[in-house]
Amino acid sequence: MKSLARALGLVLLLALPLVASAENSTHTGGYTIHHNALTTDSLPVQVATAYGIQRSKNRALLNVSVIRDAPGGQLGTPVHAQIRAVARNLYGQLRPIEMREVVEGQAIYYIADFPVAHRELLNFEFEIMPEGGRYPLRAHMRQEFYTD
Predict the structure, then answer these.
(1) pTM
(2) Domain 2-145 homologous superfamily, CATH
């Protein structure tokens, strides 16, 4: 299981530069929320199997983490949170996304997988209540999926 955790960690680390370049993070209320999505065919087989994720170019993985900001530019602390996520297509149709928590060592993140179509553009909306938080945080992102 440790090798699977490392493999998923590696996939997530590889995705971080994409997240940074696409500015898929939100700074609000003393927290940084990192969010990204990719098609599941890019996941290693072992990782997809370990987390019950179907590998397919027509399925996407949504990944969200919530980090409590630290003073002085130091690394923040991952926190548990309740996350409500919905995706809205260009027709305005809402699709609730059921997030599940993954804890590996000190890392805490939330994942979900769901079907997508070629060139589907989804607007994701997040409502996040960090553990110990006083009010919910809001974040959003837009992602177009290419499946062909």
Answers:
(1) 0.83
(2) Domain of unknown function DUF4426 (2.60.40.3340)
